[in-house]
Amino acid sequence: MIFWQQIKDKLTDGQQVYLLTVIENFGSSPGRKGFKMLISEDQFIAGSVGGGVMEFRLVAEARELLLTKNPPTFIKKQIHRGNITDGSGMICSGEQTVAFHCLNADHLPVIQKLLDAVRSGEKGTLLLAKNEFDFREDVLATRFAYEIRSGDDWYFKEHIGYRDHLYIVGGGHVSVAVSELFSKLGFYVHVFDNRTALNTLENNQAAHQKTVTDYENIADHIPEGLDTYVVIMTNKYTEDKLAVQRLLRRKYAFTGVLGSKAKLKTLRKELLKEGFTTKELNTLHAPVGLPIKSETPDEIAVSIAAQIICAKNGGGCK
Q: Which of 139, 206, 250, 258 lies 20 to 30 A from 95 at CA?
């Protein structure tokens, strides 16, 4: 979001800027699809399309074009195999195609629409093409979609906004550490607690949404979905159990409970007696987090993040 705000600031200041976007890459390309860079008329630079001598040349080209009357929109292929035609000067044996979009004050409504969506947790699609720069409310099934038929006939679409949502049930010290780490990992973080005026909840600056609610109704606040990850870490065993009872049979990408093995063994036995099946209980990550002997809230957050990232990326972590 900072990157798009920087673009908005430059456009609001009356400057033209070049937005460079990697729209295709193969092999060991230093820039991957979606990498972006901003170059403004006042020589400001933000972001990266891969670094090195290749990036230096692209920046120099953008700066030179910004001095002309009508800077063009175009794509440029970079082949990283040394001194050859279309070569980038790099030798990493990859390829990438970079789109150059010159933006001006006319594009401010699109940038503002994108920023508003990201800030509110909404999703949308950034569309780039020879004659298009737009943000639309439709959502891609994948992160990127693109096609390059020629230098004038191409498009690139990118999912913008928070694809993954983390719901933390419990607003204590560990919740704060988990919120801070997952917000950096690109998750939209929701935190719930049933206590009013809770210091750790009120001072949690990393969570995007904070809600005080009765855990009896927690399912009403957490929608089902394969982009939804849930971690339960209340301050009482009975409340952990209540949250599990309300959420276990719902369809989430991941559901975990923080706690000792002894506590969670008791939880499992009681839920089995109440009619939950072994199959249902086996979907619960309890205790949540990879076993790295974590002790501090920050260490626990790392263990939880590692397990959720593994699950999200299909790594098969238990």
A: 139
Using a 10 angstrom Cβ sphere, with 0-12 exposed, 13-18 middle and 19 or more buried, the burial of residue 90 is buried
Site of tokens 């972001």: 47
The b-or-e profile of 231-270 (16+ CB within 10 A means b, else e) is bbbbeeeebbbbbbbbbbeeebbbbbbbbeeebbeebbee
Q: Is 196 exposed, middle or buried (0-12, 13-18, 19+ CB in 10 A)?
A: exposed
* Residue extents of the structural domains in the chain: 2-161, 165-312
**pLDDT tens-place values along the chain, 318 residues long:** 789 999 999 999 999 999 999 999 887 666 789 999 999 999 999 999 988 888 899 999 999 999 998 899 999 988 755 554 554 444 445 789 999 999 999 999 999 999 998 888 788 999 999 999 999 988 888 889 999 999 999 999 999 888 899 999 999 999 999 999 999 998 999 999 999 999 999 999 999 999 999 999 999 999 999 999 999 999 999 999 999 999 999 999 999 999 999 999 999 999 999 999 999 999 999 999 999 999 999 999 999 999 999 999 887 676
